[in-house]
Write a structure and sequence with these properties.
There is one protein chain. The protein contains 18 helices and 19 strands. It has 485 residues and is α/β, with parallel strands linked by helices. It folds into 3 domains: 169 residues, 2-Layer Sandwich (VC0802-like); 209 residues, 3-Layer(aba) Sandwich (Rossmann fold), CATH 3.40.50.620; 86 residues, Oxidized Rhodanese, domain 1 (3-Layer(aba) Sandwich), CATH 3.40.250.10. The strands form 3 sheets. Strands 2-3-1-4-8-7-5-6 form an 8-stranded mixed sheet. The chain has a 6-stranded mixed sheet with strand order 13-12-9-10-11-14, sandwiched between helices. Strands 15-19-18-16-17 form a 5-stranded parallel sheet, with helices on one face. The two termini are 28 Å apart.
């Protein structure tokens, strides 16, 4: 398999030295991701693209996995799946192209586009006309259309190598990691913070996760799932940190000492203070939030201004102008929707009449009643961990949950993967009952099942099934085990 990876256009317009640095970073990121799947892969950066090459022993399943992984690497604009032949003459070139495209053109309009590099005694148009004419004659139901064809057959001629493009894949775009400085994202597990985190990763900023726990152990496990999933999909070429701050003592202080209408604004100010302290400790220069203008009472221009006054640390809001519907749609595209939809709301404080126009002097006056030693203490006690350890932690936390690789004849297996994953690769176990209950419904649906039976949770990686088994055990359901193929 050969992939020709094209840089995002913004990389191409950089100065020569910057472009070289960005291309080297992207080359390194692709190498890390691809070699994780196929250790003997070759990844070579060139001036206009990056070549990714594997040997012929790659299975179709692994090939598809590699292609999917490259699509999620920031900095990749698009990439072509190619088959390379030695260029002999026009007729041989036509035969090589026909092997891959002849059957695809039945009943379709098409055109041929050729790009050349190197010295040849003919033009790209000459080769286009010859290959196009040959395909037109060999496929009776096909016809040439140069303006709006159904299919564009793409060929590249590099010196004496003819590259037939089998398929073109869309990349993530953006900038390679870490072309920007590190940022700290305030992650809650909901739609907004996950999408904001994704946008910063896509722009080339290594993004760490800061979680303010308002809902106890279940809240923390859920947010760890979301954070690990985002990191694994879009940022796993680099190590990042997950910071968990127990904010319940801060919420108690707010409920006891802060004026009711200002509670929401003060809670956000306390979060920004704490996040700024964490960022300073980790030498991170900017915070990221999922706030969108006017979405809730604390996100008016006036309130955002008051919130920002608590720190000199730069606060980035990549979603500030985006509608909620657009945010939710993006969460579907990036794979965080189901996590966010299942995440309960942990508001911390709810004001009866929250102000939309907080006055800074009044906020500072009511904050004088707050015991700031409590805030300092929760920051000091914050847990800082390598996000890669979340999977290891999940394994350690659920040691009491039994794992099996062989199932009894009366086993009931619950596939907790998302509907998209389950549909793409159904779990088929001969003679056994398999229930498809996605992880975000398992907590509410499990109680309806026959509790006299044993249930075995399954997912591809084993992380989600272990965490869900842990939660079910904590809710008193002990007849739950984990199945690993």
């Amino acid at each position: 398999m050969k992939l020709i990876v094209k840089y995002h256009p913004e990389i191409n317009i950089k100065s020569r030295s910057v472009r070289r640095r960005f291309s080297k970073l992207l080359e390194s990121n692709i190498r890390i991701i691809v070699k994780r799947l196929y250790p003997s892969a070759h990844v070579i950066a060139r001036w206009s693209d990056i070549l990714v090459e594997t040997k012929d022993d790659v299975t179709p399943e692994l090939e598809a996995e590699i292609i999917e992984a490259v699509s999620r690497i920031p900095g990749v604009d698009q990439y072509n799946e190619i088959v390379e032949y030695p260029f002999v003459d026009f007729e041989t070139a036509f035969q090589d192209v026909a092997k891959h495209w002849q059957n695809e053109l039945v009943g379709k309009t098409f055109c041929v586009r050729v790009k050349r590099s190197g010295k040849h005694d003919f033009t790209s148009s000459d080769l286009e006309r010859y290959i196009g004419g040959g395909l037109n004659q060999s496929v009776e139901s096909a016809s040439v259309s140069l303006r709006k064809p159904d299919i564009t057959v793409k060929v590249e001629l590099r010196e004496d190598k003819l590259q037939v493009i089998k398929a073109n894949h869309k990349g993530l775009g953006g900038m390679p990691l870490p072309t920007q400085e590190d940022v700290l994202s305030l992650i809650s597990g909901g739609f907004d913070s996950g999408v904001a985190t994704y946008h910063m990763m896509r722009r080339g900023a290594r993004t760490h996760f800061c979680f303010f726990n308002l809902g106890g152990r279940e809240h923390e496990i859920g947010v760890k799932q979301v954070s690990h999933a985002i990191w694994q999909r879009y940022s796993s070429s680099h190590k990042t940190k997950f910071i968990s701050v127990n904010f319940e003592p801060v919420v108690d202080q707010i409920l006891t000492n802060i004026d009711n209408g200002l509670m929401g604004v003060v809670l956000k100010r306390m979060m920004m203070r704490a996040a700024a302290q964490v960022a300073d400790k980790l030498n991170i220069k900017a915070l990221v939030t999922g706030e969108s203008l006017g979405q809730v009472s604390s996100q008016t221009l006036t309130n955002l201004n008051v919130i920002d006054r608590v720190t000199e640390t730069l606060i980035l809001r990549p979603l500030i102008h985006i509608d909620k519907a657009e945010i939710i749609e993006t969460s579907r595209e990036i794979g965080t929707h189901d996590f966010a939809a299942a995440m309960p709301e942990y508001c911390g404080v709810i004001s009866k009449k929250p102000t939309t126009r907080a006055v800074l002097s009044q906020v500072e006056e009511t904050e004088a009643n707050f015991d700031f030693s409590v805030l300092d203490q929760v920051v000091a006690d914050a847990e800082i961990m390598d996000i890669r350890k979340i999977e290891d932690e999940a394994q350690q936390e659920v040691q009491e949950v039994e794992h099996v690789t062989e199932l009894p004849t009366d086993a009931v297996v619950i596939d907790v993967r998302s509907p998209e994953e389950e549909e793409e690769n159904p779990l088929e176990l001969d003679g056994l009952e398999v229930l498809a209950i996605p992880f975000f419904k398992i907590a509410t649906k499990f109680g309806d099942l026959d509790q006299s039976k044993d249930y075995y949770l399954y997912c591809d990686k084993g992380v989600m099934s272990r965490l869900q088994a842990l939660l079910l055990h904590e809710h008193g359901y002990k007849s739950v085990k984990v199945y690993r193929k």
